[in-house]
Amino acid sequence: MTTTVTRTFRVEPPPETVIEYLKDFAHAEQWDPGTESCRRIGSGPIQLGSSWLNTSRIAGITTELTYTLERLTEDTIVLVGRNDSATSTDTITVRPDGTGSQVTYRADIEMHSVAGKLAGPAVKLVFEKLGHDTERQLVQALNAL
After folding, report:
1. What is the C-alpha separation between 128 and 133, in angstroms, rounded?
2. d(Cα 26, Cα 123) in Å, to the nearest integer?
3. 3-state SS assignment for residue 84
4. Which H or E element spans position 14?
5. In the chain, alpha helices (H)
6. What is the homologous superfamily of the domain 2-143 according to CATH?
7. Rg (CA), the chain
């Protein structure tokens, strides 16, 4: 079962500033309320294949996913996080909006375990709440750039 949460919002910085900031997933510590830590695996420039170890706590459960930057264009970032029980695909699209940007953040969370699949409706509620909180914190972080 896949749960999808999407948010679209406007921020003050231009698209190139937003993309440059968000492509470094280590910044998730600043804008993702579920993230407890997010550290880069490896070094060098951030590019396709760059990865991060993300530790999140959601609804009282701590989990680690390894995220990989799988797509990076001038207006789109796709990060895919994986572990044995879930795959999270985060697609961020950034478009010009006046002097700022319109950001669409879509998270597709696929649960691999039977228990996760059975808990589908509850999982959706938890991730909708998290989506609301993430939008609020992401707007604050981006507008502070």
Report:
1. 9
2. 25
3. coil
4. none
5. 15-22, 28-31, 114-118, 120-143
6. START domain (3.30.530.20)
7. 15
In this structure, which amino acid lies at residue 83?
A: N
The rounded distance, in Å, linking the Cα atoms of 16 and 48 is 17
What are the structural domain ranges in the chain?
Answer: 2-143
C-alpha angle 53-77-46 in degrees, rounded to nearest 5: 55
Rounded CA-CA distance 14/95 in Å is 9
Going by pLDDT thresholds of 50, 70 and 90, the confidence category of residue 64 is very high
In 3D, which of 83, 144, 135, 66 has the Cα closest to residue 107?
135
pLDDT tens-digit readout, 95-137:
999 999 999 999 999 988 655 554 556 666 667 777 788 999 9
Higher-scoring residue by pLDDT: 37, 132 = 37
Helix count (H) and strand count (E) of the chain? 4, 7
Residues whose CB is less than 8 angstroms from the CB of residue 7 and which lie 6 or more positions away in sequence, other chains included: 104, 105, 131, 132, 134, 135
Q: Enter the tokens of residue 46.
A: 């951030």
